[in-house]
Amino acid sequence: MNFLNLGIIFAIIFLISSFFYLINQPLLISYIISGTFVSNFFNLSESDISFLNSFADLGIIFLFFVVGLQLDFNLLKEISKKAVLIGLSQEVLTILAGVILIILLGYPFKQALLISTALSFSSTAIVLKILSDKKELETLYGRLIIGFMIVQDIFALFVFFLLDLIEPNFIKFNEIIISFLSLFLFFFLLFIANKIIKKFEEKIESNLEYLFVFSLSYLMGVISLGNLLNIGNEISSLSAGLSLANLAFSKEIVSRFKPLRDFFILLFFVKLGLNFPVFQIDFNFLYHLLILSFFVIFINPLIVMFIMWFFKFPLKVNFVVSLSSGQISEFSFVMADIAKDKKFFNENLIHLISGIGFATIFVSSYLLYFHETIFNKIKRFLRFFEVKEREEKEEIFSYQILLLGADRIGGIILRNLKDYKDKILIIDYNPEIVKKLKNENFNVIYGDVSEVDFLEELNLKNTKIVISTIPDLNVNLLLLDFLKSKNKEIIFISVASREKEKLELENKGSDFVFIPYHLGGEAISKKIRELI
Question: For residue 107, which of 86, 189, 217, 414 sits 20 to 30 Å off, Cα-Cα?
Fold first, then answer.
């Protein structure tokens, strides 16, 4: 490749991504726009495009390898059954609705099915980045979204496997049987490899430079084995990661490969942008782009809302989880690329998927970043989705201690206050936790303490202590203000995620604020002093 052209491409990527960074938008979109800008304003030779395609393929390989390394089986065990059902139900219903809509737009059934499937995947990377920025990964909706997204990712990988076995005009049933046998052999060999590597685990991780060389060689070896058995690079690289995920050095491999992944996957999205001819857009293309983007941003979340309502999740949790599905995924682009190689998609469909990705990721990022404000503005229009656990407005007796949230930290507190069981009222908005605690004969009610109407129903006559384990500063400030306005003598204890939040709660009048990892450090220090 001409290095002058490469320098120009990266200069353009730098300028456009800098602008996106300054306006707090996902950088992924800036890479697609960079590719579009380059393809429409610069002439690239065939060797330049071939070079970018090769690097883009490496980006996909490293992306799947890192995903596999992080998808350890312990994490999969933690996914709740409801998150699995939500993910699978969403995929089925979205694909069905999408197929109907896309056929009405004039596409043949096979293309409609593939387009609809590609549009059913949501971006795990973008959603988790936003939740991480907002410190919401530990909330109920944060954990549901993680489970929901992992289910989607696994479903996407299954689709890629099937896509490898299908040709445009027929399904190779005999090859499907052979491929499943090959896949069984492939996984068996990786299982054996895992057992062998475990015996040399300490030796391999003793030198970090050698660990990197070993990991890269292992990845390429597994991909070569996959090619021999006619298994696609995506499945091979993911399986390579999974086969190392349970080893002690897997996190070190992830940290070493992330820069490689980020560099090469950047070029994959630039490659997608290269296929987007701005000056060839006609009315029909724009019409389809707007309709399908509307479907992803609004109809797909609406489908998830109905599923969440069916499973009786509270309105706010329902709303945020649903919003997380309002954009397409990196896997959508990968699937479009595979479909193009298989001759299912032409260039126009690749352009269409790229355009939908730009529109949906751009809009949904705003919706997720400001979900609290949006929810407060429109919640009165969403009352249909509100779940009423108490059919009749029953009397809530007054208890000396209120525990708000009984999952992780709340569960630990509860175990240590068993002697005061009859004096504690627990409030949680996770239906599973409420059911579990009721079976254990705890005083527990279902409710969302971020709702003022619910707080007004509480009987605080005999309440002396309120403990909030909710990791949300705004909710804790609301609780603090409400409780102190009712009774200034109530002792309010709350959790905070960082020092700045702790100081703000203390300044507003909270009696005791704790940061979980600080308490852990203090307990360890105390134990060490005892041992010394």
Answer: 86
The upper half-sphere exposure of residue 507, i.e. CA atoms within 13 Å in the direction of its Cβ, equals 7
Comparing CA positions, the residue from 438, 443, 433, 442 lying closest to residue 406 is 433
* Number of DSSP helices (H) and strands (E) in the chain, helices first: 25, 6
Token pair for residue 283?
């009315």
Which whole number is the average pLDDT over 403-417?
81
Please state, in angstroms and rounded to a whole number, the distance separating the CA atoms of residues 206 and 405: 43
User: In this structure, are residues 273 and 348 in contact, taking their beta carbons and an 8 Å threshold?
Assistant: no
Distance CA 82, CA 148 (A): 9
Residue 94, both tokens: 């979205």
Q: How far apart are CA 442 and CA 445, in angstroms?
A: 9
* Chain mean position to CA 216: 26
**CA gap 504, 123 in Å, rounded:** 34
Is residue 529 predicted with pLDDT exceeding 70? no
Cβ(149)–Cβ(127) under 8 Å?
yes
Q: Which residue has the higher pLDDT, 107 or 26?
A: 107
Task: Assign 263 a pLDDT band (cuts: 50, 70, 90).
Answer: confident
Q: Which of 312, 301, 320 is nearest to 430 (CA)?
A: 312
pLDDT at position 277: 66
57: amino acid identity, one letter? D
Q: Name all domains of the chain by residue range, CATH numbers in brackets.
A: 3-274+283-381 (1.20.1530.20), 401-531 (3.40.50.720)
Q: Which residue shows structure tokens 């507003």? A: 508
CA dist 219 and 237 (Å) reads 6
Q: 146-150, 262-266, 463-467: which has the highest mean pLDDT?
A: 463-467
